[in-house]
Amino acid sequence: MLYVVFFLSTLKCYTFQSTISMGKYQIIIIFRPYICFCIFLSITASPYSHASNRNYIAPGEWLNHGGDIYNRRYATGETKIAPSTAKNFRLKWRFHAGRDITATPAIEKGLVYFPCWNGNIYALNVTDGSLIWQQNLQNLTGLEPTILFYNTTWIVSRTTPTIAGDKLIFGIYGPGFVVAVKKGNGELIWSTKLDDHPSSVVTMSGTYYNGKYYVGTSSQEAATATVENCCLFRGSFSSLDANTGKMLWKTYMLPDNGGKVGGYSGTSVWGSSPSIDISRSHIYIATGNLYSVPPHIEQCQEEQNNSTPPTNPDKCVEPEKHGNSILALDLDFGEIKWFRQLGGYDVWYFACINSSTPGCPPGPNMDADFGEAPMVLSVRANGTKKDIVVAVQKSGFGWALDRDNGNIFWSTEAGPGGLQGGGTWGAATDGKLVYTSIVNSNELNFTLAPSTKVTTGGGWVAMDAKTGKILWTTAVPNNGKSNIVTVANGVLLAGCFSPAGPVYAINAKNGKILWTYETGASVHGGMSVSKGCMFVGHGYKASEDWLNHGGKILNRRYADGETKISPETASSLSLRWRFEAGRDISATPAIYDGTVYFPSWKGNIYAVKSSDGCLVWQKNVQELTGLSVTVLPANVSTIVSRETPTIADDKLIIGICGPAVVIAVDRATGNLIWSARLDDHFASIVTMSGTYHNSENKQSYRGFYVGTSSLEELSSLENCCTFRGSLIKLNVQTGNHVYVATGNLYSVPQRIVECQEQQNNQTTPSDSDNCIEPDNHSNSILALDLDSGDIKWYEQLGGYDVWIVACSTPGTPNCPPGPNPDDDFGEAPMILRVNANGTTKDLLVAVQKSGFAWALYRDNGSLAWSTEAGPGGIGGGDSYR
Q1: How far apart, in whole angstroms, are the C-alpha atoms of residue 553 and residue 433?
Q2: What are the residue boundaries of the Pyrrolo-quinoline quinone repeat domain, all occurrences included (predicted)?
Q3: What is the largest CA-CA distance in the chain?
Q4: What is the 3-state secondary structure (H, E, C) of 346-372?
Q5: Which residue has the higher pLDDT, 734 or 583?
Q6: Neighbours of 216 (CB within 10 A)
Q7: Reduced to 3 states, what is the DSSP secondary structure of residue 35?
Q8: Domains of the chain listed by start with CATH number
Q9: Cα gap 19→695, rounded to integer Å
């Protein structure tokens, strides 16, 4: 959400604060007088500086995720930040980008560069955070997204841009493209596709050297594949001409699988930045786990049950199959000079998160993925200089290898591994110590070596670069989860995944926390450093939030990023807190930024803390709005809401169950902002939890979408019925498709009654029905244009279905002829993407009260598949999910 810069204040002085309003966001500037000193330094030799391998970075610059071509995450030439001054960090400026920022920023010549999850890339002035330029990636490239990730439907980058002369080069998070733009204005220079696999992505921040750009490819196939179709992607590493984008070479980590499942797949090259040894003409990378293996390897694993220690060869790992490996490649030609497989057999994808799922690869799998590339450093051991590379695995093991041949120099179990780590995304080194975070995502007992103290949270670990010996371990306060580290002149800088987003300055010598500050949202991207300032983005709240009834705009009711709840841990769920609202609560709660929002049938809306259930605010809807009740459902006599509130930036938007009014309240206070009447029918209500689309790349897509319903079906035969359902967009400018599904008819013209009496509803659900006229959109799934509301396509499913409550008893005179299958859709469709036989299919799926499930193609509404999941009924079948 925010981009935060901290600087060192060396004086005790007064603070003056000014707030500048900028629409829905604010920039808060804290003015603090300080003195700027010019400091002249003498340069001494470092472990990296010799004639053929000098530092290719000026002090104050941060050129990629790893900071330099050595991937050290070390602030070259930093003198202002020190253990003695860290306590003086003060906020210098904030930049509000509008969505999460999870990449380490790049810095050069007074400018800072970073991407954001709103689909933009930015250049700011390092001095005051003022915007120099911004570019929207989808508009810039013309690409369409192939990966729908964490509530995004647009092109994004999640990598630190690489500074390459007068260019910035960065990867796209689906499709697997690399893009180069002009550093001065962000205009496109070239784009190059690295991989044709539909799930390919670029998550690695590349490294630039001598006119060439080096980067790996990764994939989301592990997240999307089913047991039946896993998997085809093969990780690779490429060299591109930085001026033209031409691919110079590409080296795969696995043999060709012929585009058929049942062979080798996986081995993404995905973390941090590749490191370079100029004198040896080597570039060093590390790889992820395998997704699939041939049958003879599965059989081998079933026999040995993964009993091989990580430091020993594994008989189930064949040569030239480079999963969970560190490799040295030739800079000029991409030839693999040496490799070292570390961690043994490890074959896994998300559909197999439950290891007992039929058809999954045999386990156990230790998750020995490398989520970071190696660092290049040199040490002196017993008077002899040793050139090594060091990387830390998600298994929690740290490895130091000889740069000449890949032989193990030392290995250390720095901490427990886990699905998210272990170590991931970037260790750091000052040449004397190696620093890493240990996420401890599985919340195992983590001994804070060399002490005997234990935490179940994350921690930071310092190891002797010569031996791997653990010198200190510091637990993240409050059992938080640690992330990427940076080292600057004796100070280790680190953040935390906790919702409050704390950042820490730690004494690199002993692990003592010197300073902390809460940024307001979890910190995932790590810090860069320049001339006494550290720069950090924050966000990733999308993985922790639940924004409406469906969770996100894809309506999947799927907890993105959830790792603590699993089949193995579900039996350990226990009551944490209870909040008494005084009457029934029947809506799915919304969650955002550590607060839970929900209505109750008492007529109130509540905000409570997710950590302890303490009340933040409550508002009575009738007092808030001044509305009068038009419908009295479920034994209530006051205005109520019955649906999940929708999070819309700084607002909550929620519908009223009679009259059909939508209201927006301030998310922080609950105070009314606006209300809008959606339908004038006396029995109209709002029961749908709306969807807020806040696209930054196409302003025309922005809006709140919600449907209207009615209790007119409770009316008598004599006066039934006049209500017509509708879908409405509020607060719009102009967009794309929105998908809805509809309920049954209450009444029809006489000609339709006569048609039904003749056919007696003998039509099967998947066939057309003679009694359904065009543009009668009952029991239908529809795609509407986001801008205009035009119906782009529709599919009527289930045939004739006319019913009101007064006709509950069969044979009641004057009721519409039956039978009526109750094919109402009580839920909107979910958006998902599947890969069938190597082909990507974009689908909508919804389940009817009849018990039928339907999958339609998003482009045209044609039927992909249908299944009778179970019997229907007046209460469902399926309804509300």
Answers
A1: 45
A2: 76-199, 400-629
A3: 102
A4: CECCHHHCCCCCCCCCCCCCCCCCCCC
A5: 583
A6: 28
A7: coil
A8: 3-543 (2.140.10.10), 738-881 (no CATH)
A9: 26
